[in-house]
Amino acid sequence: MILKGVAFAQFQAPIVALIAGLDRDALAQAIAAAPLPELWAQAVEIYASSGSFRGSEANFSEYITPYAGTLDAAALDQLLDAVAGNGQNYAAAGTSTLLLSVVRNAGAGRLPSVDARNRFYQMLLRSRRREAFAEMTALFEADGWTPPPAALDDDED
Question: Disulfide engineering: 116 pairs with which of 42, 108, 109, 112, CB 3.0-4.6 Å?
Answer without folding.
Answer: 112
